[in-house]
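#data-curation
PF: Archiving a pair of folding outputs for the training set. Convention for this channel: one message per protein, sequence first, structure tokens after, nothing in between. First:
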Amino acid sequence: MYLTIILINLILGSLFAQNELVVLDDATQPNRMSRWAAEGPVGPAIGIDYINNDKERGTVIRFRGFALNSIFTYRGDNGEPLNIANCKALQWKMKSERPFLIQVKVSTDGGIKYLLYSDLTNKVNSRDTYLHIGIGSIYRDGKWKIITRDIEKDLLSFLPKAKLISIDAISFRGTGYIDDLLAFSSVPKDILLNKGSIKGWDKIGKSGKIGLDSDPILEKIVKFDSGKDKTDFRLRNSDGTYWKIRTNVILQWKIKTDQPYKVFVIGDTLQGKYILSYESTDANVDYDKTSEIISYGLGKDTLDGKWHAITRNIEQ
């Protein structure tokens, strides 16, 4: 007998749903390398370059440094400040296994300020000019992570009366890789697809049950039982139409189960329809040419009967 019980809510995160986007460096424009400058120790093993051997992302930006003593700073052409006045948020993809410190230089009505983002936790050792925010050691686990920061909001969390004028430079201290260094006019907004509601759900199959339940952590949640026929449950608009969301590419759901499961994401690309399958296995990414399904293993440790928040970049 096949039995799947999944408790789930869904949030679709926006990546490009803002008025303005500035691509600072995505490792595809060689002329942008001249905007980088290295500071600190010198030597043949120290520097910055574009490298095209990353299996996950292709060409990326590589920092070859001497621990936190090496600083790699991105400015405008000819070393001038970036002077980004219309964008108040930054985003970059990052892969690192060692301690790091990311410094964002901004102009304010009270002078130059530096927002410091490190692999530590919480706000520590902050002064009027240097404002330190720890984003956690999870960002140095050797895996690609997406970091999005509302620069204006971070500034105001320290200096409530400050006015952000421009973002002038971005520095990375340490070793590792980055990609897609972007500036946004505002932090993208999330779309809540479902939170403890039956609206929009339907069954594909004869057996199986779906209903609401209560949970001490998430309160009202949706409960699934696929039954013996392995019934699928589909979420769309409440009137049965498809979402057709074009601006959001990051999907997150919370799941709690001790039975095997698959979560399918279906959409369209310029080349046609795609189907992604996220499964409770330890298997690596796989592509079935017959069914045209791309499968990702989320790990058997998600079958421990505890809540897990799964976040996936659909485009990536």
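PF: Second:
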Amino acid sequence: MKSEFEKLMERHLGPRGVLPENQINAHLGDEPIMRVGVPQRSGALALNATLKQYPVMVSANAYWDPKKQCFNIPEHTPLIDANVAVDSAGFVAMMLFKSKGLQSGMCGVFPWSYEQYLTFANLMRPAWYSAPDMCCEPQAVSGQDEIDWRIDATGTLLEGCMRVLYEWQDQLAKGGCNTQTITDLVRIPVPIVQGWSISDYLASLELTLQVWERWQPWVAPPALMGLGSVCRRDLHHPEHGLFAILEQLEGRLPKGTKLHLFGVKGAALDRVRMYDFVASFDSMGWDYGARRQALRSGMSNTMGHRIGKMNEWMSKATERMRPKAGDQFRLSF
């Protein structure tokens, strides 16, 4: 029997919906994909990526208006038709924090709040979006104590996001929304594992899974997790090389969970595509290469030059990721 309070609420709000369960944070294909980093909200680079049908990675920082202290999503952008994923701008936020000091948003590092970031990420209607994280590259940290703090802070940021999202979905359920509407309007993020050395990443993975498991069965085990801070490192180093880290994480990921590698080097693709638990990669290496080539050649780094380098980089990356005769894919255990 319904209480008088429940009957009263139904008269005003309609029947209460039910909160979703076992929500998936990303829907993945069978083949790994490369996402090209697009540093603009719209314009020629975004248009080229869309016309070429490249999967895209965009940074939240590109959409932030520091004067108005809000996100600005263009009404008209070609990226609306692209396969887009959203990065929380961890490295950029850290470098801005180092130069500008205490910020008004999350953890005093980001200029935006939980609510602002999560609203932006969901309004973008991406294929998936990352939970905010604290990068651990040597350029951004002053020692192991700070790395440890950033790993803990990344877990705290994930917990904060989950609390906000749960409250939003609960409010929608109280308003009578069905589970399909709720999961369409408010989506679950991709958690990020951070660190510099193998031991850092293992500690971050353990903490991330502890946070995530607290919210099950409201959410399913993560279909996708992100591996942060991988672009500015020696690929082969035994302690902080990408390959060593991947091999240590492999047997510790939840069953069925795959990884997205943020900022992976093109030189790594021949090997990392052999890992069946790696779902995707992204890179801004093409734009860095365009700037360096223009500087060496004494030429202007025009938009046409940048578009050409984007297409060249993606063509080479796509070729490296294709199956080849003699491939020996690693077996999962």
